[in-house]
Amino acid sequence: MAEAASIEQKVHKSAWQGSFKLVNVQRAITFAWMHVAEARLRTMIKWWGSMLSFGLGNPVLYLFSVGIGIGALVDSNGTNGQLGGVSYLAFLAPALLATAAIQACQDELSFPIMEGFLWDKTFFAMNATPIRGRDIMGGLLASAMVRTIFTTALYEAILLLFGAIELDAALPMFFTALLAGLAFGAGMMAASSYVKEDDGFFAIVGRFVVAPMFMFSGTFYPLESMPIYLQWIGWISPLWHGTDLGRILSYGQPQQAWVIASHWVYLTVWAAIGMTLAARKISQRLAA
Amino acid sequence: MNSSMSMQNMIEAKGLTKKYADFVAVDGIDFVVKRGEAFGLLGPNGAGKSTTMKMIASVSKRTGGELTILGKDPNKYGPEIRAHLGVVPQQDNLDRELKVHENLFSYGRFFGLSRKFLKGKVEELLEFAQLTEKRNSKAEELSGGMKRRLTIARGLVNEPEILMLDEPTTGLDPQARHILWDRLFRLKEQGVTLVITTHYMDEAEQLCDRLIVMDKGKIMAEGSPANLIREYSSKEVLEVRFGSSRNAEVAEQLKGIGDRIEILPDRILIYSENGEADLRTILTRGLDPVTSLVRRSSLEDVFLRLTGRTLVE
Amino acid sequence: MSLINASVDSAIAIAERRRNKLGSSVYSGRSSVVLERGFMALKTSNWIIVASGFVEPVLYLLAFGFGIGQLVGAVSGSNGQQISYAAFIAPALLATSAMNGAIYDSTWNVFFKMHFAKLYQTMLSTSLGPLDVAIGEISWALLRGLVYSLGFMTVMAALGLITSWWAILAIPGAVLIAFGFASVGMGITSYLKNLHQMNWINFFMLPMFLFSGTFYPLSIYPDWLQAFIQAWPLWHAIQLERAFMLGNLSPEIFGHILYFVAMIVLGLVFTTKRLTALFMR
Predict the structure, then answer these.
(1) Cα distance between residue C167 and residue C163, in whole Å
(2) Chain B neighbours, 3+ Cβ pairs < 8 A
(3) What is the domain extent for residue A37?
(4) Chain A nearest C-alpha distance from B257 (Å)
(5) Count of structural domains within chain B
(6) CA B257 to centroid of chain Cα atoms
(7) What is the ipTM of this complex?
(8) Does the CB of B110 have a partner CB in chain A at under 8 Å?
(9) Which of B12, B162, C165, C226 has a CA positioned 20 to 30 A from the CA of residue B175?
(10) Are the beta carbons of A215 and C63 separated by less than 8 Å?
(11) B195 in helix, strand or coil?
(12) Read out DSSP for B85-127?
């Protein structure tokens, strides 16, 4: 009883100011997307260890197995001419860097959306505050980019350590990889926001979109060496555009100016469309 | 504040309508909620209470009529209005992976409240919800009642002008309900306007100054609990049971007793000014009920009168 | 009350009877019932996901076999003959897909049934014993593996990658491999408690896939690493399938077969033990 009384006292003691005084409405609305990102990061930080080890583990394994193992076969076979005269490792590195970025970004923009709408319904809790659908989109994307930046930077450091890329190309390559991650992540976010039930959607996307994209985007061999009727997979895949930009920056792979420009445009358009569709669909579902 | 006059009305609805593709969830309702009032929406599942709540919460857009909250149109100023609302949804939507205190802190940040302010506020709310000892548990580890209290505390983090509670005590044990009612009373004393949906009659009678009874998207009646009971029911109710097979047959012989008789599958309700006297009349007619009970009229009876149906089916 | 007591009493009686007659308590010879349930569940499960088990190795074969094949040229097989790169990795992909299918069926699927659907409690409260359940589940995994490997062999034949009649043995080979992985997988799964631990299974599968001589001969590794990799089951699986498909039969294949027989026995023993301990006390 004494305890209950003291609680009462404390509750009464603090002055109730009321939200008119307390909440700076304009500020809350302007920075809403940052508040969403902050909340996501608060959850993310609890998993940072497994996040980084899984995010890096996969591309590092490919680096060792394919880059060094198959690299030994290719380099001894002397077919490096097909790769523009560089070692297989140098050829592979930009693709793996873009893959690491894409993987990290899309991971953060798929399941969290299921969580927000279906499992925990946290998006509905956010939407009861000044936060809007587009703020949720912006905040998710921003937090996903934070993860992408960390993963990509660490992976790039590993590539540097292996001499797979040159130091002076590292910074520009970092940004093109991020752009590829952003483009695919935004697309994934849009797709996820349309998912109404968890009936294996992500398993299907993983096996029929992400895996083929990984294998047929000129990742392990030049896109041009595939039959022409398969090359379209590369043309539509953000991974190929990001990889090609990386190769141009890393070892100066020759490329025509209009192709370079189209890489930038294509990736930017993906990001823009993904963000627009996601914002629209998320808002729609919140208001339903 | 030049709007102080209109601000006395926290919420104004006129012909408020929400149509979905194939049905009308809310069908042109009018009501006003005044500052500091505890306003109730009463009705069975599917009456349109939750849809009305979503529109007041400035989340779901109305499809017809007018709605003004804190003097603003929610279809245009959703975020601005939501900054002053506290919302407790029917289903708890806590962030399961965050700890109890992080849930409160994180939610406060959504209103742009400063970390410094929230540090103190979170502790205060933890005490309010009696969760101080659980502050470091993950939300998913809490019991149902604790989750409910945390959700309610979360809705108070911005010190809202209007606190909206959708079925606040569903799933709570009696003791927890009374604790919660006590907390809500205290908020009311502090001048917070409460909007509550419930299908518990005792809750509506305890908490609400005024309420509307909804059914099939329409308002059936409006007033204070006492007025509604006076208007739509009698002072007392006599409940008699003759066994389910005999109820209908006996009802014939009860004619003339009380003001009105309702025959339910399991019992017969006799509305009258003096239940004890009516029970004596029944006994003198040689009818021998298995059980009998005289009680005061409640909102349950109002609802039965208005719709011909019981609230909890 | 009396009704509950009666049913509890009879359940205890059944359990006691089972425990006394040791053989019949574990195995009633009715594992086909478990298999039948699998067929019924298949009708409602997601066909695309089931089909993807077949698509994945084909994608790898196309991407690596032909794409990287152009860069790598010919590779020397185990007895020194020169073979195309696609022919070199195809048996490894067949072995890997047998592993993947079996592991999926015997880990995720079994875990889900144990912890969420509570299917085993239901099954074991009938006349079925734990070994029936184990063999039934594993047969299900094998049947799927058999269908996948037939599909993959068809694709290989169409691509002209099959040159020896011995290659037909690769199909029972794939079933043996699936059997080994399924039974060990189920044994491990029956000991796991939460989904986080399940992630560790994936954690081991990818490196095993990438380093077991799948994409290039083991000889490029230093000796100590070779010895390490040769201890892992997928290496034996790949060697077995490669021997069959390329027609390079040598006494070594008996070693690989023995490895898998040992996996099957160990897996079954542990699964039965664990299921008995969990559900039959």
Answers:
(1) 8
(2) A
(3) 27-287
(4) 50
(5) 2
(6) 34
(7) 0.87
(8) yes
(9) B162
(10) yes
(11) strand
(12) EEEE-SS----TTSBHHHHHHHHHHHTT--HHHHHHHHHHHHH
Chains B and C contact (Cβ–Cβ under 8 Å for 3 or more pairs) = no
> pLDDT tens digit string along B183-237?
888 888 888 999 999 878 788 888 999 999 999 999 999 999 989 988 888 888 9
Q: Which one-letter DSSP state was computed for residue B138?
A: B
A80 part of a folded domain:
yes
Contact A18, B161 (CB under 8 A): yes
Q: Chain C: residue nearest A205 by CA?
A: C49
Q: Do B279 and B161 sit in the same domain of this protein? A: no
Would you state the pLDDT for residue A1? 41
Identify whether the C-beta of residue B170 lies closer than 8 Å to the C-beta of residue B134: no
**Range with the lowest mean pLDDT among A261-275, B79-93, B252-266?**
B252-266
Domain boundary among B172, B194, B229: B229
Neighbours of A41 (CB within 10 A): 15
| B39–chain A nearest CA distance, Å | 19
H or E element, residue B29: strand B24-34
Q: Do chains B and A touch (3 or more CB pairs under 8 A)?
A: yes
Give contacts of A 83-112 with C, CB under 8 A: 83, 88
Q: Is B18 helix (H, G, I), strand (E, B) or coil?
A: strand
Task: Select from B233, B229, B236, B232 the least CA-distant residue to B274.
Answer: B236
Structure tokens at B42: 């009463």
3-class DSSP assignment, residue C98: helix
Structural domain boundaries enclosing B270: 234-296
Residue A224, chain C, CB below 8 Å: the answer is no
In whole angstroms, what is the distance from residue C121 CA to residue C118 CA? Answer: 6
Among candidate residues A100, A111, A98, the one with its CA nearest the CA of residue A40: A111
Please name every residue paired with A70 in a beta bridge, in sequence order, or none if there are none: none
Cα–Cα distance for residue pair A226/A229, rounded to 1 Å:
8
CB contact under 8 A, A69 and C70: no
What whole-number distance in Å separates Cα of residue A68 and Cα of residue A88?
8
Residues of chain C with Cβ-Cβ distance to A221 below 8 Å are 67-68, 70-71
> What global pTM score does this model have?
0.84
**Number of structural domains found in chain A:** 1
Q: Worst-scoring range by mean pLDDT, A8-12, A258-262, C149-153?
A: A8-12
Which helix (DSSP H) or strand (DSSP E) does residue C29 occupy?
A: none
Residue with tokens 């198959």: A70
Query: Which residue in this structure is represented by tokens 């490329």?
Result: A255
Strand partners, B34: B9
Single-letter amino acid code for the residue at C26: V
Indicate the burial class of B278 (C-beta count within 10 angstroms; 0-12, 13-18, 19 or more): buried
Are the C-beta atoms of residues B91 and B165 closer than 8 Å to each other?
no
Residue B69 lies in a domain: yes
Cβ contact, residue pair B111, A130, below 8 Å = yes
B287 and B179 within one domain: no
Is B156 contained in some domain?
yes
User: What is the helix, strand, coil percentage profile of chain C, to 5?
Assistant: 80, 0, 20
Q: Which amino acid is at A254?
A: P
What is the rounded distance in angstroms from the CA atom of residue C131 to the CA atom of residue A273?
Answer: 54
Per-residue confidence band for A133, with pLDDT thresholds at 50, 70 and 90: very high
Residues B172 and B197 placed together within one structural domain of the fold: yes
Best of A83, A111, A208 to mutate (most C CBs within 10 Å, chain C): A208
Region B120-137: mean pLDDT is 94
Of A113, A126, A258, A133, whose CA–CA distance to A188 is shortest?
A: A113
Among A72-81, A228-237, C44-53, C159-168, the minimum mean pLDDT is found in: C44-53
DSSP reduced 3-state for C236: helix
Q: Which residue matches tokens 């009633």?
A: C28
∠ CA(B221), CA(B222), CA(B226), 5° rounding? 105
**Coil/strand/helix, residue C60:** helix
Domain assignments of chain C as residue spans, ordered by start: 29-279
Which among C71, C75, C200, C216 is the top mutation candidate for probing chain A, defined by the most A β-carbons within 10 Å of its own β-carbon?
A: C71
